Amino acid sequence: MKKLITLLTILVTVSVTAQNFQLHRDLERGHFTTTFEMFKPDKYGNTFTFVDFDYNTANGISGAYYEIARVLKTEKMPVGVHVEYNGGLGTFDLGEGFSGGYTINEAWIFGANYGKSNAKWGFSTYAGYKAFTGADGEANFQVTGTWYWNLIADKLTFTGFADLWTENGLTDNTVFLAEPQLWYHLNKTFSVGGELEISSNFAVDNDAIKGRPTLAIKWNL
Questions:
Q1: Phi/psi at 194 (5° precision)
Q2: In 115-205, alpha helices (H)
Q3: In the chain, where does DSSP find H-type helix?
Q4: Which side of the chain, N or C, has fewer Cβ within a 10 Å radius?
Q5: pLDDT tens sequence across 163-185
């Protein structure tokens, strides 16, 4: 799971901190993922952070991914300054009770952020330079868009994000990742729904487009 954002609160500056905890069941890969995220606005912009944990081994947590982003923007600025850091690690099965580990190369993103919203719908997007650890000086970029659409007020919301980025310079294949989500709100505290992870050139996948659905519950803290 990545950027499973309560987009209404992210796009509209509010005076309280938004936090939620999510539990997803990946129907194709057969494992659970938990996500904790927090969004906090202030008079100079907003801060968003989240962490994902995958559970697909007998020993518990098999992967972790962390992201934190800061948007610097005042009411007089039509476009905000976006600064982001992300990275993670994981394990894989070697058989006979042994496992190996790997790290997800950390990355910094520096760019510009723009958004529009109202009570019914909204979007936010940013584009920036992406600096990878171990990229050997290659120039990379990332473009991200997020959205929400309240299909039925206080009951049904369509939300999600889409990323496009490079990892080895402009001559390499680009990576695409999107996670559209649908949430039915049982009340102000709990929602049920799921997402469809759509990807190409992501992780160990080839350039074929993959679709992985989940079923999920969200607890708004």
A1: 170, -175
A2: none
A3: 7-11
A4: C
A5: 999 988 776 778 999 999 999 99
What is the per-residue pLDDT across 183-194, written as a single tens digit (0 to 9) for each? 999 999 999 999
Task: Give the total number of structural domains in the chain.
Answer: 1
Whole-number Å distance between alpha carbons of 47 and 115: 15
Within 10 Å of residue 93's Cβ, how many Cβ atoms? 13
Please, are residues 87 and 103 in contact by the beta-carbon 8 Å criterion?
A: yes
At 173, which CATH number? 2.40.160.40
H runs (alpha helix) in 5-135: 7-11
pTM passes above 0.70: yes
Tell me, yes or no, whether 2 lies in a domain: no
Give the largest CA-CA distance in the chain.
Answer: 61
Domain that holds residue 64: 7-220
198: closest CA among 212, 216, 187, 188? 212
Domain-located, residue 177:
yes
